From TrEMBL:
It comes from Artocarpus hypargyreus. HAMAP family: Ribosomal_bL20. This is Large ribosomal subunit protein bL20c. One of its GO terms (biological process) is translation. Gene3D superfamilies: 6.10.160.10, Ribosomal protein L20 (1.10.1900.20). One of its GO terms (molecular function) is rRNA binding. One of its GO terms (cellular component) is ribonucleoprotein complex. The lineage of its organism: Eukaryota, Viridiplantae, Streptophyta, Embryophyta, Tracheophyta.
């Protein structure tokens, strides 16, 4: 019987996985089974961290807004500001409010004074 040479499909799949794990250390970038396990773990972590990143940024924006408002000593707290924003139907999200708080505090003070009226 003559020797049968296998096709390239499995090799192509493995090299594609190896390219994904080329920056990993040790056996995690050399052994095929370990590479596939690490790829699954890396993708799961990436998915979880996308949600965590959204939470972290929201916490950062809230902290920045609260710090600026409390330093003013005219306004009370973050939660009351947000409550009055919703009551007056001003459509400013936390990201925009945080940018205003950092770049132009006077504008945030004007917004808070308008809400108080």
């Amino acid at each position: 019987m003559t020797r049968i040479k296998r096709g390239y499909i499995a090799r192509r799949r493995r090299t594609k996985i190896r390219l994904f794990a080329s920056s990993f250390r040790g056996a995690r970038s050399r052994l095929t089974r370990t590479i596939t396990q690490q790829k699954i773990r890396a993708l799961v972590s990436a998915h979880q961290d996308r949600g965590r990143q959204k939470r972290d940024f929201r916490r950062l924006w809230i902290t920045r807004i609260n710090a600026v408002i409390r330093s003013n000593k005219v306004y009370y707290s973050y939660c009351t500001l947000i409550h009055h924003l919703y009551k007056r139907q001003l459509l400013l999200n936390r990201k925009i409010l945080a940018q205003i708080a950092i770049l132009n505090r006077n504008c945030l003070y004007m917004i808070s004074n308008e809400i108080l009226k």
